[in-house]
Amino acid sequence: MKIIDVLRIAIGNLMRNKLRTFLTVSGVVVGISTIVFLVTLGFGLQKLVIRKTTNLEALKVITLNSKNKEESKNLNATLVKKLQDIPNVDVVTPSYYFSASIDGYEGLAPAIYAIEPSHFEVYDLKTKNGKQFTDESAKEIIVNKKLVDDLKEDQNTIIGKSFKFNITGIGQDDSTKTMDVELKVVDVLNDESPGKIGYSPFKVFADMNSNYYNIKIKVKTQEQLPEVKKIIESMGFSTSVIKNQLSAINLAFAIINGILGAFGMVALFVAAIGIFNTMTISLLERTHEIGVMKAIGGRDKDCSRIFTAEAATIGLMGGTFGITIGWGIGRLLEVIINYLASKAGPADQIPGHLFYTPPIFAIGVVVFAFLVSTFAGIWPARRASRLNPLEALRYE
To answer: Which residue ranges does the record assign to the ABC3 transporter permease C-terminal domain (predicted)?
Structure first.
């Protein structure tokens, strides 16, 4: 019997029992849609976390830190020049770190980082209005949300206001350096860190003559990062890269997705039992029909193929509808959440895409449903192929 004939007979058998087929397919749909909903939520949250914590340019950045106070003295202009000469290095930019106080705000002690405005993107700073410093030596500051709150200010009205900062740092000779400077707030960071932080242009603090806090090295391509990182570490410095953090994030979400998928697997396992039950009942109902088929020349493998095709068709339909419904529920929930977020807060607080369905995952889920259903129908199919034609014809 040709494959097309097997499929035609199998689909015809399923259509003759529409309600039973619908209920069996529904079981698969529930299992698959549950898996899709939960796992795509995991994928979506993973992308959201990565998007909120880094950008593509940050994946090419190596941060050079000192292991102790003595080594911090080696973070200087001479080292910056050496790093710039390393092959495949694109940008080398140092930063200062200072403790500070603010006139009129007793007990408020923010951390101030001095960076080079020309290399703003290397620091992966995301601001509320997308603004940067006016120039390399502008007496300006970008503050985070925590500092805004502690200043008892609003994120919108604080922009343009000036505050007098009392800056304290450690000089290259280990002496304490201080300076007073008035800085104007130009923007607010999209940052939820608990610390009070501000960023200002590097040249504003040139007279402090301090050791660098750290040095960031941006390589030309992501592929060249491991090689450059190895060279820097051979110079005796410790380094860190965003890629390591992404690996930890991806590992955590892989575990989460596995747990979420396991819940969906329970529903799919129940559906597989339903398919097994349906095919077994169908076998008992069609025993006489199978006897007739064999009596007129039907082969054992033809009977087996028909039952297997029926189970596979149920899995294929359940997988297709399941992934569509799971995706649809996710999208609907996403729209509702984004709508509520837009009503409750500013636009930058809207989470965006909470669900993400990788194409390979969608295809894999359908194939998985197909295989599970096919496997569930194997035993009834083998039992049908082994029926004795004479006994089957006598069966009522």
So the answer is: 262-389
